[in-house]
Design brief:
By secondary structure, the protein is of the alpha/beta class. The protein folds into 2 domains: about 5-90 and about 285-370, no CATH class; about 120-265, 3-Layer(aba) Sandwich (Rossmann fold), CATH 3.40.50. The protein is built from 10 helices and 16 strands. Strands 1, 12, 13, 14, 15 and 16 form a 6-stranded mixed sheet that branches. A 6-stranded mixed sheet has the order 5-4-8-9-10-11, with helices on both faces. Strands 2-3 form a two-stranded antiparallel ribbon. Helix 2 (about 15-35) packs across helix 3 and helix 8 crosses helix 9 (about 240-250). The radius of gyration is 21 Å and the shape is globular. About 40% of the residues are buried.
């Protein structure tokens, strides 16, 4: 069993201080593997003068040259010795998408993580449920990671039914409110709990439509709302959390305590799951660095900057350190939920001009001519 496998099999999924040494060892092992098997990645590290064998502690990881999601949308970095069995793509909201591959080791570690996170947050259940997915039905024409993640969520409890809220019309996806309302009526009368999963924007817009129509449902006990995929292009329409919780309570009869949110990315599919205080605690499978928007240098905790997500999960591509388009802040203060892991707060996305500025800075950082 290699270091990454050991890391993903830790029982305490939020013991960051206790897993620092193993995490550093797993990162060192992973970076060396990609360095030896991906010429483009080797060129990046060599040009930056970074020795992958120099990773000994988690502090050393901050020096690891990173890639950006914008860069990965235009460049495909493949580790030659790994053969992907499944591929997934990012949302491609900027018009371009990143394709990531999963080989057997990556898939197994990802599965173990999902099992452990689901256990911790009590998401696994033997009770059959009705599912409404506020997203796309995964098929050959749709390889989006969000679609696959939403479908996998429907495996956490036996499915009585699955209703997909988005329908393809003339090549475009549109919300189908009448189909969702019919599914809600069936679920309410079935006696089985309802679980919704999908984009928070679509979930919010639909609940707002229910309120406009003066429709009220009382979902069976045990029902929950799960949110994932972020607000994307709808970030300006994002409501206060209290407003979202009010709508869920009044239109579906689902209390705040049964609303779960996930954060992640196609390029970094680690499950950041909010606690009962609705905070994203950083799990042992990753570390997060907040970088200055202008200089891209690491910032102390408590400062707002660009989010850099770090994990040794992938063996198919060198997705070891990924700078996103998200603005975030890491909090060290104790959380009322009792979890001692620091929390990651996502406060927004960099605007279009900001993305270009950061991308230009990253291009200079990476010295693209060398890859």
């Amino acid at each position: 069993m290699n270091k990454t496998e050991k890391l993903f099999r830790l029982r305490d999924i939020y013991d960051l201080s206790g897993s620092d040494e193993l995490f550093a060892e797993a990162m060192r092992e992973n970076v060396i593997y990609h360095y030896n098997n991906c010429q483009q990645y080797k060129s990046i590290l060599d040009r930056k003068g970074f020795d992958p064998y120099s990773i000994h502690t988690v502090k050393d990881i901050a020096r690891l040259p990173f890639l950006t999601t914008q860069y990965l949308k235009r460049h495909s970095l493949v580790t030659e010795s790994s053969e992907p069995l499944v591929t997934a793509t990012s949302s491609g909201t900027s018009g371009k998408a990143t394709t990531v591959g999963y080989d057997i080791p990556t898939m197994l570690n990802d599965l173990v993580m999902c099992i452990n996170v689901g256990k911790y947050h009590k998401l696994w259940s033997a009770v059959p449920v009705n599912y409404i997915v506020f997203g796309y039905r995964p098929d050959r024409e749709n390889t989006a990671a969000a679609a696959k993640t939403a479908y996998l969520f429907t495996l956490m409890a036996p499915a009585v039914s699955r209703t997909f809220a988005l329908e393809r019309v003339n090549g475009e996806y549109r919300l189908a409110p009448e189909k969702i309302i019919a599914a809600l009526k069936r679920s309410e009368s079935s006696g089985f709990p309802l679980r919704t999963m999908g984009f928070p924007a679509y979930t919010y817009f639909f609940m707002r439509e229910l309120e406009r129509r003066k429709l009220r449902f009382k979902m069976p006990e045990g029902s929950l709302i799960a949110l994932g995929g972020g607000w994307k292009s709808h970030y300006k329409e994002r409501p206060e959390k209290e407003e979202f919780y009010r709508l869920a309570r009044e239109t579906l009869g689902i209390p705040e305590s049964r609303i779960f949110e996930f954060f992640g990315a196609a390029e970094h599919p680690i499950l950041y799951t909010d606690c009962r205080c609705h905070r994203f605690h950083i799990p042992v499978y990753s570390r997060v660095i907040i970088r200055d928007v202008d200089t891209l240098e690491p910032l102390p905790h408590g400062n707002v900057g660009i989010v850099d997500l770090i994990t040794p999960l992938f063996t198919t591509s060198p997705l070891c350190s990924i700078v996103t388009d998200d603005l975030g802040i890491i909090h060290d203060e104790p959380c009322p939920c009792g979890c001692k892991s620091p929390t990651l707060e996502i406060i927004g996305r960099v605007g279009a001009s900001g993305v270009r500025t950061c991308a230009q800075g990253a291009e200079k950082y990476l010295k693209e001519g060398a890859v």
